[in-house]
Design goal:
The complex is a heterodimer.
Chain A lengths: L3 E8 L5 H11 L5 H4 L9 H6 L7 E7 L5 E7 L8 H9 L3 E7 L6 H12 L3 E7 L6 H16 L7 E2 L8 H11 L12 E10 L3 E10 L1 E3 L3 E4 L5 E3 L2 E5 L3 E3 L2 E3 L3 E5 L13 E4 L18 E7 L5 H13 L5 E7 L3 E8 L2 H13 L5 E3 L3 E2 L1 E5 L4 E4 L11 E16 L3 H10 L3 E9 L2 E9 H5 L2 H8 L5 E12 L1 E8 L2 E2 L5 E4 L3 H15 L7 E7 L2 E8 L15 H17 L1 E3 L2 E3 L12
Parallel strand pairs in A: 1-3, 1-4, 4-5, 5-6
Antiparallel strand pairs in A: 2-3, 7-8, 7-16, 8-15, 9-14, 10-11, 10-16, 12-13, 12-15, 17-19, 17-20, 17-21, 18-19, 22-23, 22-24, 24-26, 24-27, 25-26, 28-29, 28-30, 28-31, 31-32, 33-34
Chain B lengths: L2 E6 L20 H14 L8 E8 L7 H14 L2 E11 L6 H9 L4 E7 L3 H6 L6 H13 L5 E7 L6 H13 L4 E6 L7 H7 L8 H17 L3 E4 L2 E3 L6 H7 L4 E4 L4 E4 L2 E5 L3 H9 L5 E6 L2 H14 L5 H8 L3 H4 L3 H7 L3 E3 L4 E3 L1 H5 L1 H13 L1
Parallel strand pairs in B: 1-2, 1-9, 2-3, 3-4, 4-5, 5-6
Antiparallel strand pairs in B: 6-8, 7-8, 10-11, 11-12, 13-14
Helix pairs in contact in B: 1-2, 1-10, 2-3, 6-8, 11-16
The chains are: A alpha+beta, B alpha/beta.
């Protein structure tokens, strides 16, 4: 155990985490130079690669012969880089004794890094600061200030920081030596009752769930009967091993090790991240702290573009949830969209990932509605209802109070943007909770904001208003009452349930006006005039109209025109089939998440 | 019905808007006629049943001399069978006709003429690159009647840049005064690949706004109706009993053979088209090979789509026919839209026939694509 080092990398998107990980693997001979050409091995999901973020957690064991003459087993545990997955991050940090804090020499510290760093410090991890990308020409002018930020942040000395360029291979040996010298070896008692932390699990079609664990105490061996303490499920261990580039069966894992096991587990939901694995016949009395159920925070309707494909969509969601334990889905129906599902997500990115996976991996053509949060409604009879679909909000006369979820947002940006950020957050009904300067020109601001206000384009606005310099991190706070009303959209007098939203009373007029005018842009001219109205209850608060199309017919259709004309009609037909119809009005799919693109 | 189309690919001058295949040279006409005769022989086995219509289109078929026409119609009669009341149409440029020529065509068997009049305004004719003038159009009509033609069509073009409702109205009045038996009135199409389209892309031509186009269309329909012309297709109007049988063949999904470069034929479920090049077409025919550039076999779904949109844009869809042919009850399949269309006056249902109204023709493509989506979905 003395030769084990379990560590992770904390970094902001684009600060070079994946490149550094690749470089470490290459240096320890885990990956050949040829494999390196495939670059950034840890991010094996195409979506992750595209977005430059890591969503799923992985771990890789490296053998390293250190300068002290000893050989070490280094377990690099990767962490996801987005706020939607902060719980997963906290669990993977729990599996480590140390963390490399990677900061871009030209960019400085960002919000995401800080929150993950604080999480790591709270969990007692040894932090090794790495200033990356020092070879960039612009680093010359920024590096001193970045160094100062890091020193202020973690209270380290200048000598504690390693200057590196993962891309150019600078500082890699120093990093490996520092991991060996500074990250403490794992503690734990191999003879105590088994305590293993689940920090990730993935579904494999052939072997069931593959569970990634860090063994804290005890030893797990194949054939052992194990117990998942949170779910109460028991299984017999099939295969136990460690993670090199591929899984390598070892038959057992003892305290201090990081590895995997399989046990013919069919459902990902049975092996919850953060749960403690112990032995069924000799259980620990002391489960690992910090487990919680992951709850969806953002909801959206997902409907098949073609209503005949409902069952296909159900199957796709079922399969998708095999390797995404966080998504929830329940059938619902809408007069505009037919039969579909109300799906719950950890956050917006998670939602986008699910939507894209449905389209790419499962070939589903879907229509999604505007995301919303889950409201807590107290009725006049003092019942509490949870509403995650605006169309299901009860009649206002039956509502005593509506509560909505709030977040605590941390925003770090150059100080010149303080005013801009304040204004944005105030516009979004935010309250400033605190502000501190990380350096002379870099400010760290904390706000409380309704999650519903962040769900719509907040992040994009923040980025564009600060020319990309602001970074955001948030955690869920609590539910607070708000002056909330349901705003409906009517097309030619018929309510379109999938376009209903819950908005703050004071913002309803403005919101209604903007939504109507956005819909006016998105809904094409039709054979009939279309009246678009926004309403609260029976009161119309905004209206627009789309005049009827005047002419749509090609004059000429003779022998040589027919095939061409048929193809044109077929093409238009496909367009029609993608539209959803409410009454006489055809609505393009984009209209259902129109508010997302309001400016 | 069984139609026969012959494409005559020559023009004195090409019109900027026209996307039919033709070349601005008449020196190869003799050789062309020889080749056309050879192609007729190549396909002679395909004419199993009597033809009900023959159509000489172009190009400018009136560039053929009566003698040429005679050679073609003689061979046609030798190779194929025609019904007694077979419609024999040829397109004529009003600028290229004389009494003698028209009499010659009539002697060769032509019994219907179609004049590309387009407009009576010099500026509009110039815009369209037409080689004739308004007087020649009037003369052509008189000569046609004098030569004994009792079935004459005139083409009219509207939504021409520079045109006004007043000038269109004048065109309509002057055309109906000539009492043609049939009028085809087209809204100008900016076809890909034409000089007009290039002008559009370069911003040298600005199409009339959709509103004006719609108003002009309305004026065309109402004027022609008021003068006893019945609309039986988006762009076609006729006096009683004078619908163009050949064009109905296209729109009713009936078979037609085709000859000449770029011509399209349709037999069974196959549509074929000849090379769109006089040279390639000639080379194939002279080698004894069919000059087909390609063909497509229509699937049941293609046939259904064509059945629906062609009938809708022409003289209406008969639910019983659709039921027999495709096993689909259109009245059920088109709900709820059919109800909206009827309520809004785009369509009428007289029990046997669903047909577009003047308002319906105006948005025919919208209705067709929606109908196709409903029927295929």
């Amino acid at each position: 155990m003395q030769n084990y080092r379990n560590f992770c990398i904390i970094a902001h998107i684009d600060h070079g985490k994946s490149t550094l990980a690749d470089r470490l693997l290459e240096r320890t001979g885990r990956v050949s130079a040829r494999e390196m050409t495939m670059n950034q091995i840890l991010d094996d999901n195409p979506l992750e690669q595209e977005r430059g973020i890591t969503i799923k957690l992985h771990a890789i064991q490296m053998d390293y012969a250190a300068n002290d003459g000893n050989s070490y087993k280094l377990n690099l545990i990767d962490t996801p880089g987005h706020v939607d997955f902060s719980y997963e991050v906290s669990r993977s940090l729990s599996a480590c004794e140390g963390a490399l804090l990677v900061v871009d020499a030209t960019q400085g510290v960002e919000a995401q890094t800080i929150s993950n760093l604080f999480m790591a410090i709270e969990q007692g991890l040894e932090i090794i600061p790495v200033i990356n990308k020092i070879d960039l020409p612009s680093a010359v002018t920024t590096i001193e200030s970045v160094k100062q930020q890091v020193m202020d942040l973690i209270g380290c000395k200048e000598d504690d920081m390693i200057l590196a360029s993962a891309k150019a291979g600078i500082g890699i040996d120093e990093i490996l030596e520092a991991v060996v010298a500074r990250v403490p070896p794992p503690k734990g008692d191999p003879k105590a009752p088994l305590r293993a932390l689940i920090y990730d699990s993935v579904f494999d079609a052939y072997r069931g769930v593959i569970v990634y664990v860090r063994v804290i105490d005890g030893t797990m061996r194949e054939k052992d009967k194990i117990l998942f303490m949170a779910t109460g499920q028991t299984y017999e261990l099939d295969e136990v091993g460690v993670l090199y580039m591929q899984r390598q069966r070892t038959g057992e894992l003892a305290a201090g090790s990081v590895g995997y096991f399989t046990a013919a587990i069919r459902k990902l939901q049975d092996s919850k991240v953060g749960d403690t694995v112990t032995l069924a016949n000799n259980p620990t009395t002391n489960p690992i702290e910090g487990f919680r159920e992951v709850k969806p925070m953002v909801f959206s309707g997902i409907y098949p573009a073609d209503s005949d494909d409902f069952e296909d969509l159900r199957e796709a969601l079922g399969k998708l949830s095999l390797n995404d334990s966080a998504i929830t889905f329940e059938p619902e129906s809408s007069s505009a969209l037919g039969f579909g599902f109300r799906c719950g997500f950890l956050g917006l990115l998670h939602m986008e990932i699910v939507q894209e996976r449905l389209e790419r991996e499962f070939n589903q053509t879907i229509v999604t509605t505007v995301p919303n949060v889950r409201y807590q409604v107290v009725t006049t009879r003092d019942e509490i209802l949870w509403v995650d679909n605006p169309a299901q909000l009860p009649n206002p006369t039956l509502i005593n109070e509506i509560l909505e979820p709030y977040i605590r947002a941390q925003i770090i940006a150059p100080s010149e943007y303080v005013g801009t950020i304040m204004k944005l957050c105030m516009d979004r009904r935010g309250t400033m909770m605190g502000q501190s300067y990380l350096s002379a020109d870099r400010v760290d601001m904390t706000f409380e904001l309704p999650l519903a206000e962040v769900v719509f384009d907040f992040y994009d606005k923040l980025k564009s208003n600060t020319r990309g310099y602001a970074s955001l991190d948030y955690e869920y706070a609590d539910y607070k009452p708000g002056q909330l009303v349901r705003m409906d959209i009517l097309l030619n007098g018929e309510q379109v349930d999938a376009l209903s939203s819950i908005v703050h009373r004071q913002k309803a007029h403005e919101w209604g006006k903007r939504l109507c005018s956005k819909l006016r842009e998105l809904i094409p001219r039709q054979m009939f005039e279309v009246a678009i109205q926004a309403a609260i209850g029976s009161k119309i608060i905004a209206r627009e109209s789309i005049s009827a199309m005047r002419k749509n017919v090609l004059a000429k259709c003779y022998g040589g025109d027919i095939s061409r004309k048929r193809k044109l009609i077929e093409k238009q037909k496909e367009g029609k089939k993608r539209m959803k119809q409410v009454g006489k009005v055809e609505i393009p799919q984009e209209a259902f998440h129109a508010v997302l693109s309001l400016d | 019905m069984f139609g026969l189309y012959l494409h005559i690919p020559f023009c004195e001058k090409k019109c900027s808007y026209c996307d039919f295949y033709s070349i601005e040279s008449t020196e190869h006409i003799d050789r062309f006629v020889d080749t056309l005769l050879a192609e007729l022989r190549l396909r002679s086995a395909a004419g199993q049943q009597p033809f009900t219509s023959v159509f000489f289109g172009g190009g400018t078929p009136s560039l053929l001399r009566p003698h040429d026409m005679h050679r073609i119609t003689s061979l046609l009669r030798e190779l194929f069978v025609f019904t007694d009341d077979c419609e024999w149409t040829m397109e004529c440029n009003p600028g290229t006709v004389t009494l003698e020529r028209l009499q010659g065509y009539r002697a060769a068997g032509i019994n219907r003429l179609s004049f590309g009049v387009q407009s009576f305004q010099a500026s509009e004719l110039a815009f369209l690159d037409r080689i004739h003038n308004a007087d020649e159009a009037v003369t052509a009509m008189l000569l046609a009647r004098q030569a004994g033609f009792d079935n004459v069509n005139m083409d009219l073009m509207f939504a021409v840049p520079g045109q006004t409702l007043e000038s269109l109205s004048d065109n309509l009045q002057r055309m109906v005064a000539l009492q043609p038996d049939h009028i085809s009135a087209y809204s100008l199409i900016y076809e890909h690949g034409t000089p007009l389209y290039a002008d559009l892309l370069k911003g040298r031509v600005k199409p009339l706004p959709e509103e004006i186009d719609a108003e002009m269309y309305h004026l065309v329909i109402s004027t022609l109706r008021a003068h006893g012309y019945e609309q039986y297709e988006v762009s076609n109007f006729s006096k009683a009993g004078r619908r163009c049988r050949h064009n109905l063949t296209y729109w009713h999904g009936e078979p037609y053979l085709a000859f000449g470069p770029s011509a399209h034929g349709f037999i069974g479920t196959t549509r074929y088209w000849n090379y769109r090049s006089l040279t390639a077409w000639t080379q194939h025919v002279l080698k004894g090979a069919l000059p087909e550039a390609n063909h497509e076999v229509l699937t049941e779904s293609d046939l259904l789509t064509e059945h629906v949109f062609l009938h809708l844009r022409a003289d209406g869809l008969r639910p019983l026919e659709t039921q027999d042919r495709f096993g689909i009850d259109v009245r059920v399949a088109l709900q709820p839209d059919l109800g909206y269309w009827i309520d809004a006056g785009f369509l009428t249902d007289d029990g046997d026939l669903l047909s577009l109204t003047a308002e319906g023709y105006r948005v025919c493509d919208e209705i067709s694509s929606k109908a196709a989506a409903r029927l295929a979905g």
